[in-house]
């Protein structure tokens, strides 16, 4: 141990000894080997801190001899029962359990760090402590609730008790030092408690019992916690009931149970409650977990679970995570549990909860070789010891190697290594072997892809010095301009191999690049596609997890090349947001964008998982939601799975879903701070505020880079807010700040990008007007002060989120504006003047080219035509104001015989064709201009109709 670390440890020992002596007791540290004391106090700040805070505890541990002995099987049940027996009430129980927990965790850390206990003894004692705390907590709380609500009974009047199943590490008796505990709760039958005054249902009784048990064990208090409790493995997860009846839980698994839930139940173990009934109930679940045949049909689901593990490593950047990273603990556990799911139904030997026992069964059954068994077993022991040493230092639930060099050195020393370098070398070796076996588990990587390195294209990357041969190989594979390809590859090769993990990155790139060249060579434009792919690879070069994703999933590379061939915009989008690469692993979702309802559900789940009420985390969750779903839309679009009109619809639904969430989150933040505006009740749907969509969003015509044209309206009464934690503010000020927050929420740049550019210039008086208008003022402005072009804009406007009453009032105003009688000549003059101003304001002219949007006969001309005709004839035809999109507005104009069917058809055809090509040009990252002879006949038709309508 380095001198400075030993000196610091000795100082802690001295401080603790003085604390014991100041309490009038002898420290007894003379009974302990000095090296053992230094190891404990150097490698566990938590143990040192607890000994200093409670000097009597360390003396009692030394006197009792508990530091030297392994507890018998029932020792923890006795200790915890004794502590619980001294508690007067629920609060006293919580304190007693936390103090006992500190004593026992110091003891366990002491024995582990000084070599008195091996890994298996440490895991077993941690698990036994957790078992005892849950059982004794339940035994203490159950009679308390019975005294208040009566004893729960079934239909026959028989008393009922709950059962508690441990899942995960606790289920396998493999708990780590600062682990949470995964629990699942059930009770035998529906019924009610026996009480004349406060009878409640059994479900309500046991739900209250579970909540109080979780608080007693898992709640953080000044005394700390006992064990963090995680209940997300229960049926329906976080959205499901905390406790279910046996029948309800069995029905769930039989009807809705998924493969990962079978996986989770493999380790389930009854630890508390009615043991007899609990074991009988689990026997009912066993056929779901372990099928009574060789379940090779589950391979597809298992592959999906494996891909999920890979995606999580990529998404969360878990390279230094010894549990979740490549080659980590979870990959070993997955390796064994796959065999359990496949063979457990016909061979009970596989129905083990301990992963090491499962590996023993697999070796005995020749499912794995002795070498694989030894490598996985030794890696598991090494990684679990590392995990415990990481967590023993501060009693924190961490699985990531510390970034601080001093902390890494301390970890290495605690693991018995002389230096950090030796420790990291051993760790890398173990994790590399684990990851290799994990990759072999469901079939090796594509032999075709591996063979690519032996072909000509493989040598192009691997032997850059053979220029002439490489040029010939590229030409033979169909690459035009082979010298350009060699230059691109050379420039990229110069960038690889640097950084902290340079040699690892280089090895991965050397395996990936032959596959990239092979996949690109299959396209009809290999050089163009290679340039686009290289842009992405350049962006992810220092993110080795993404390189690994493409390596380990040949299908992902195949789809990436396919998309890159079609659109450079997609490659740019992926380069900006590489976390989207994991979408390539699931083709079904990638080419099937969500509908409106599914989008709302997806966002709701992401927000629930984002970390509570932290605005930054919520904003990041919404941005990732947008990126993922935008990618799904564009992937379906460019591959022909989604026609143009539906693309715009899906982009509109996506924007509306995000706006709805933005309003909901910012509204609650404002109300929490300032209270509700006057005359607004508690109904979330009655906020007195609405968002109006104009332009492309209003007309269901959004593109991938469209701004959102918005107007905010409110209907608050005069007065101030009430009920907030800060001083009240004027109602109008409240809504002004709300509007500002929404805009900031949507447009503020973060680490995950921004959501949308927001354009508020269409509000009354434009940029000179107030941000959020009162509905009365908006109505007056539209009826008395608005320009004709503002009424044109109103034709595409619609309320999208917020208060229904405000939305209805806006719709009424819009209807009246459209239905107002107008002088046709004056209207035509105003529309033509605005159109001419737009043409004059253009900065560039495209000689010999046709601007699909702005040139005569283009998109804007069609929109102006439609808007003029609606304003001109709206007073006589109410149905003209029904729609906000151009296509259905043209249908309405034809139905009212304002324009001929042939003219309406010609305008719709031109509009849709123009929009399609604008859309495609955007995806190619090009301006929306084409040769002027393109669509010449369409343009002539539009211009002819324009002249006929305006008399020009």
From TrEMBL:
According to its UniProt entry, this protein's organism is Desulfosalsimonas propionicica
Q: What is this protein called?
A: Glutamate-ammonia-ligase adenylyltransferase
GO terms for biological process?
regulation of glutamine family amino acid metabolic process
Q: What is its EC number?
A: 2.7.7.42
Q: Which PANTHER family match?
A: BIFUNCTIONAL GLUTAMINE SYNTHETASE ADENYLYLTRANSFERASE_ADENYLYL-REMOVING ENZYME (PTHR30621:SF0), GLUTAMINE SYNTHETASE ADENYLYLTRANSFERASE (PTHR30621)
GO terms (molecular function) for this protein are: [glutamate-ammonia-ligase] adenylyltransferase activity; ATP binding; ligase activity
What HAMAP family has UniProt attached to this entry? GlnE (MF_00802)
The record's top EC class is transferase
The UniProt entry, under NCBIfam families, shows: PRK11072.1
Q: Which InterPro entries does UniProt cross-reference here?
A: GlnE, GlnE_rpt_dom, NT_sf, PII_UdlTrfase/GS_AdlTrfase
Q: Which residues form the PII-uridylyltransferase/Glutamine-synthetase adenylyltransferase domain?
A: 303-442, 831-928
The Glutamate-ammonia ligase adenylyltransferase repeated domain extends over 36-281, 558-811
């Amino acid at each position: 141990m380095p001198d400075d670390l030993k000196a610091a440890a000795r100082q802690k020992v001295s401080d603790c000894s003085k604390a014991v002596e100041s309490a009038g007791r002898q420290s007894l540290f003379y009974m302990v080997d000095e090296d053992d004391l230094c190891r404990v106090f150097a490698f566990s700040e938590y143990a040192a801190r607890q000994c200093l805070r409670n000097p009597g505890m360390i003396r009692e541990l030394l006197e009792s001899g508990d530091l030297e002995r392994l507890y018998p099987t029932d020792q923890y049940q006795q200790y915890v029962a004794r502590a619980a027996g001294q508690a007067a009430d629920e609060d006293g129980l919580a304190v007693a359990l936390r103090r006992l927990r500190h004593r026992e965790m110091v003891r366990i850390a002491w024995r582990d760090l000084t070599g008195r206990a091996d890994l298996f003894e440490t895991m077993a004692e941690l698990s036994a402590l957790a078992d005892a705390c849950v059982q004794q907590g339940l035994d203490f709380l159950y009679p308390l609730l019975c005294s208040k609500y009566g004893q729960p009974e079934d239909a026959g009047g028989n008393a009922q008790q709950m059962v508690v199943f441990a899942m995960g590490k606790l289920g396998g008796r493999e708990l780590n030092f600062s682990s949470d505990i995964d629990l699942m709760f059930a009770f035998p039958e529906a019924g009610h408690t026996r009480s004349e005054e406060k009878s409640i249902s059994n479900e309500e009784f046991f739900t209250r019992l579970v909540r109080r048990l979780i608080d007693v064990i898992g709640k953080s208090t000044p005394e700390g916690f006992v064990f963090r409790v995680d209940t997300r493995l229960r049926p329906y997860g976080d959205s499901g009931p905390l406790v279910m009846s046996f029948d309800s839980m069995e029905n769930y698994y039989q009807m809705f149970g998924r493969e990962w839930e079978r996986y989770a139940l493999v380790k389930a173990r009854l630890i508390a409650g009615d043991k007899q009934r609990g074991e009988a109930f689990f026997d009912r679940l066993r056929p779901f977990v372990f099928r009574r045949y060789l379940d090779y049909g589950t391979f597809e689901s298992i592959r999906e679970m494996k891909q999920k593990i890979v995606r999580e490593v990529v998404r969360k950047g878990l390279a230094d995570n010894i549990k979740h990273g490549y080659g980590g603990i979870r990959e070993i556990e997955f390796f064994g549990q796959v065999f359990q799911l496949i063979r457990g139904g016909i061979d009970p030997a596989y129905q083990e909860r301990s992963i090491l026992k499962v590996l023993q069964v697999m070796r005995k059954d020749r499912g794995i070789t002795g070498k694989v068994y030894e490598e996985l077993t030794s890696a598991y022991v090494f990684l679990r010891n590392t995990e415990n040493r990481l967590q023993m230092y501060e009693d924190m639930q961490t699985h990531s190697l510390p970034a601080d060099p001093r902390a890494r050195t301390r970890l290495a020393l605690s693991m018995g290594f002389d230096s950090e370098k030796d420790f990291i070398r051993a760790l890398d070796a173990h994790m590399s072997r684990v990851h290799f076996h994990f990759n072999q588990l469901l079939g090796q990587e594509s032999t075709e892809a591996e063979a690519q390195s032996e072909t000509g294209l493989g040598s192009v990357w691997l032997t850059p010095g053979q220029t002439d041969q490489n040029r010939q190989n590229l030409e033979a594979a169909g690459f035009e301009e082979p010298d350009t390809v060699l230059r691109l590859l050379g420039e990229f090769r110069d960038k690889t191999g640097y950084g902290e993990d340079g040699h690892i990155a280089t090895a991965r790139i050397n395996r990936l690049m032959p596959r990239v060249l092979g996949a690109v060579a299959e396209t009809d434009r290999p050089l163009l596609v290679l340039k686009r792919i290289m842009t992405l690879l350049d962006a992810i070069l220092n993110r080795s997890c993404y390189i690994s994703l493409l390596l380990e999933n040949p299908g992902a590379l195949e789809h990436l090349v396919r998309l890159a061939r079609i659109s450079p915009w997609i490659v740019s989008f992926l380069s900006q947001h590489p976390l989207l690469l994991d979408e390539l692993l699931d083709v079904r979702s990638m080419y099937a964008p969500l509908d409106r309802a599914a989008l709302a559900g997806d966002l709701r789940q992401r927000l629930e998982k984002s970390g509570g009420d932290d605005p930054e985390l919520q904003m990041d969750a919404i941005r990732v939601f947008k990126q993922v779903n935008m990618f799904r839309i564009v992937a379906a679009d460019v591959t022909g799975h989604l026609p143009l009109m539906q693309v715009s619809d899906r982009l509109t639904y996506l924007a509306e879903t995000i706006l709805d969430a933005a309003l909901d989150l910012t509204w609650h933040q404002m109300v929490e701070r300032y209270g509700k505006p006057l005359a607004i009740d508690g109904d979330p749907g009655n906020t007195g505020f609405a968002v109006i969509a104009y332009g492309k969003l209003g007309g269901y015509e959004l593109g991938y880079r469209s701004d959102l044209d918005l107007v905010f309206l409110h209907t608050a009464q005069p007065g101030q807010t009430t009920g907030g934690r800060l001083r009240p503010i004027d109602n109008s000020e409240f809504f002004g700040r709300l509007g500002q927050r929404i805009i900031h929420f949507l447009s503020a740049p973060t680490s995950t990008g921004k959501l949308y550019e927001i354009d508020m210039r269409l509000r009354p008086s434009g940029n000179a007007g107030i941000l959020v208008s009162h509905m009365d003022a908006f109505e007056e402005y539209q009826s008395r002060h608005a320009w004709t072009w503002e009424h044109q804009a109103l034709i595409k406007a619609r309320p999208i989120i917020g208060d229904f009453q405000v939305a209805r009032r806006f719709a009424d105003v819009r209807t009246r504006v459209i239905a107002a009688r107008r002088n046709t000549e004056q209207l035509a003059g105003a529309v033509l003047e605005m159109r001419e101003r737009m043409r004059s304001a253009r900065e560039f002219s495209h000689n010999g080219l046709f601007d699909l949007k702005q040139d005569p006969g283009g998109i804007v001309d069609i929109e102006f035509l439609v808007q003029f005709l609606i304003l001109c004839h709206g007073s006589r035809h109410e149905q003209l104001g029904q729609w906000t999109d151009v296509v259905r507005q043209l249908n309405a104009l034809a139905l009212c015989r304002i324009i001929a069917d042939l003219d309406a058809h010609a305008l719709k055809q031109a509009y849709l064709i123009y929009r399609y090509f604008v859309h495609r040009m955007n995806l190619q990252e090009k301006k929306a201009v084409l040769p002027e002879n393109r669509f010449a006949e369409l343009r002539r038709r539009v211009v002819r109709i324009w002249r006929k309508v305006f008399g020009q």
